[in-house]
Amino acid sequence: MASVALVGEFLTRRPPPKSITDTNPAKLFIFTSQEPPTTWPNHLRTGTTPPAEIFFSTLATTRANAGGLAAQRALEHDANLELARAAKDAGAKVYVLVSSTGANAASPVPFLKLKGEIEESILALGFERTVVFRPGIIAGRREERTLAEAVVRSVAAGWVSKPWLRDWWSQDAEEIARAAVRAGVRAWKGEGEEGGKKVVMLHGRHC
After folding, report:
1. Which of 30, 85, 86, 197 satisfies CB 3.0 to 4.6 Å to 41 for a cystine?
2. What is the three-class DSSP state of 207?
3. Spatial separation of the C-alpha atoms in residues 155 and 94, rounded to whole Å
4. Element housing 85 (H / E)
C-alpha cells in the first residue's frame, strides 16, 4: 500500500463520521458549511492552504431530493462547474469527476444528458489532466454522502493500489473511491495511462 503525502480538504454541509476524521487527521481539513455548494467556490479560491493539486468531485443529488430537474441541474452542473473553475484558479492540476455509465449530452434520458453535459463543461476548462469515472449502479448504502466520504477515507488511508473494480454494472462506493484516488494520484505523478493522457475516461470495471 503506497502512502499519499498530500493534504486533502473535504467540503461538506455536514461533518463526516468520526471514523473518517480519526483515520489520519494530519492529511484532512474539513470545511463544513450550511450554505449551498454554490457559495463554496470562494473558499476554494481563498481558503485552501496549501492549494490542492488534485480535485475530486462526487457532487450529486437526485431530482426528487433537489425538487425538480432544474434544481438538480443547478447543483450537479452549475455548482460543479463553478467549483471546478475555482479549483483550477487555486492551482489544481488534476480533476477527477465521478460521472455515470451512459453519460451523453445528446441522450434523450434527462439524467444521462445532464451527466454528459457536466463532463463536456468540465473538459472544456482544460485541466492539465482530467479523469472521468463512469461507474454503473453504486451498490451498498444509499446515503448521498457515501461516495464522497469513501473518497476522503481513501485519501486519508493512503489507499492508491487497487487497479480494478469488481463488476461492470454494480460497484461498491468504497471500490469506486479507491480507484478514483489511485487514478488521481497516478495522473498527478504522470504515471500510467492516467499520467500519459490529458483526458482519461474509465468505464465500469476498468475504473
Report:
1. 86
2. coil
3. 15
4. helix 80-89
Query: Do 125 and 164 meet the contact criterion of CB atoms below 8 Å apart?
Result: no
pTM: 0.71
Task: State the fold for domain 8-206.
Answer: Rossmann fold (3.40.50)
Q: Whole-angstrom Cα distance, residue 205 to residue 169?
A: 8
CA distances, 169 to each of 96, 116, 134 (Å): 20, 18, 10
Residue tagged 473535504 (cell numbers): 10
What is residue 52's three-state secondary structure? coil
Q: Which amino acid is at 11?
A: L
pLDDT digits (tens, 9 = 90+) for 61-106: 778 888 888 988 988 899 889 989 988 988 889 999 989 888 999 9
Residue ranges of the domains in the chain? 8-206
